[in-house]
Amino acid sequence: MPVAIITGASKGLGRALAEALAARGWDLVLDARTPEVLKDTAAALEAYGTRVAALPGDVTDPWHRTGLVTEAGRLGGVDLLVSNASALGAEPLVRLAELPLDGLRRALEVNVVAALGLVREALPALRAAPAGAVLTISSDAAAEAYETWGGYGASKAALDQLAAVLGVEEPGLRVWAVDPGDMATDLYAAAVPDDDGPRPAPAGVVPALLRLLEERPASGRYSAPALLEARS
């Protein structure tokens, strides 16, 4: 069975993707910072008959990243690496003039440095996989100038560039950066707590991600809404 590592997998888009892969027979290595929530998620996914290794921890910890890849090796390798764990840099978001530099450093460490660190750990297994792929979750804030989203957007723009270069340097892999579009997630609620407008559930984005896995288009940056529209 193929094996996926998914960071930030206890809820939101990470959990929704994990559930879809479990239903399709994938084995999973899951990461999140809250042990209790991650444990509940793993138990729910095991009901599909899949093997699940759930490792609570912080992706900025190199030993934790090594542990994720080691667990994947025990399950058979790494076919898919999903960098979904994210940090905002400030909660709620603030203008750049007020953005704590430590917050920006945290966003860069989680969203960029840790993502690259995990790729480096997993590269030998990804290269050995029949169809190795890396999926990074981006944001429209990486490409658009939204007030208060500067620090987070800058970190996601950096992640996009890393993914683009990785796709060139590793032609045997597929490397996709995906802007998931608007979603109702805890991350968005923490970013803009006063915005209580209705937003789509993360599960609605998953068919776009599955399309990438099924059709394996060229490495590059994709928009989930565009992938969904093209399929309809």
Automatic annotation (TrEMBL):
GO cellular-component term (any): membrane
Entry-linked CDD domains: SDR_c
Pfam families named in the record: adh_short
Name of this chain's protein: Short-chain dehydrogenase
PROSITE patterns: ADH_SHORT
Sequence similarity: Belongs to the short-chain dehydrogenases/reductases (SDR) family.
PANTHER family, per database record: DEHYDROGENASE/REDUCTASE SDR FAMILY MEMBER 7B (PTHR44196), DEHYDROGENASE_REDUCTASE SDR FAMILY MEMBER 7B (PTHR44196:SF1)
Keyword list, A-Z: Oxidoreductase
Domain of life: Bacteria
MF (Gene Ontology): oxidoreductase activity
